[in-house]
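Annex B. Sample input.
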Amino acid sequence: ALIPGISANAGEGAWLAILLAMVVSLIGVLPIIQIASALPVAGGGYVYCSRLISPFTGLFVSSMAILGGSSSLCLMAMGLGQYYLEYFPANVDAFTVAAIFIILFYIVYQFGLKLLAALQILMGIQMLLALLMYAIVLLYQNNFQLVAGAPSDGFWFAVILAFNVSFGFQIIIELGEEIRHPERNIPLALIIGAVVV
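Annex B, continued. Sample output.
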């Protein structure tokens, strides 16, 4: 849902907007990786802030994370709703389609985390295959020449949108208790994720 906005605002400099957002995100998450590796617990954002600063700070940070996650969920659902709107009857709007997707994923979530994790993996593979398909077509149309031009006027807005693409780096700290060997696997997961993006 965000890639078209990034490309529209940054033009041929979209690659630079994504790279810059990833660097900023990684700089911000490096201390969190250290804490998550040393203290692998579920709900890391609350635990770390409440132990290191104060319980109120832990509550505040967790509240902001919930608000931010909810906002991102709504943004992604609306983007997904816009893409799938044409498959619904004409009198259905994007908001309704977005709500349907949120409800469907909530129902899948009720069947357990293993099913949800498998679905996430399948959707990730599908996304990577779709991106590969787009890349091959675009490279073919450009005679297999990569175009990496200068950013256009909306570059900084594109960086903000791209930062949301790499926001998932920070989500991994919340799973510290559920990851085997977090001191090794959290940084490894972040590095692999950055390379894939």
